[in-house]
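Good morning C.,

I know you're traveling, so I'll keep this short. The sequence:
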Amino acid sequence: MSLEAVYQRNLHHRGQSSGWLRAAVLGANDGLVSNASLLIGIAAAGKIDLLRVAGLAGIAAGAMSMAVGEYISVRSQVDIEHSDRLMEIAHLKEDPEGELLELTQIYIDRGLAHELAAQVAQAFTEKDALEAHLRDELGHHEANQAKPIQAAIASAISFAAGAAIPLLGALLPTTGGKVTTIIAFTLLGLAGTGYISSRLAGSPVVRTTLRVLIGGSLGMAITAGIGALVRL
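The tokens, ready to paste straight into the viewer:
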């Protein structure tokens, strides 16, 4: 197999999409559970006339909250990476010999013989000492670099999409109770989220879907119970 074919094969690795994928899955799951829980609590309390307003407000507020929270969280990671970079620049300037020894020991710990590890460390240092230390000492890679704006957008959009599902269940005409319809729509949404996330992440479909369903069901059950108590 040619080197180009190997590069093309490596494009299927999922680590490069872990940032936005985590934010999207979290946003969709949070949108489903939080808005469903809100609507179930209101419906269980007998406030059916408030479902539309509460559901729309839940989507808007939740999407903005998720976007801002995700941006701040990921931005903090960017700040940490930047701080580490400045610190490593200072270390290389103050003690280049010690940093070379440190890099050599890293390669020894990974299985290289001392002489070969020293040669590799020297070669990487001559090419780009800072990049070598950021990559091999601190684990900073361009492929998994934090992207706050991307994460915020993915989180907001997926939250709104997830939160719209239980609201749709609440607004559709039904012969049964609103709570039952909301729960049914939300469970379908959770199952869909679990399936999609498992396919994107390459994880077992059944296990991932069950994990999402169980977690979401617990959240809805607790909120429904609180709403029922308020009604009493």
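Safe travels,
E.
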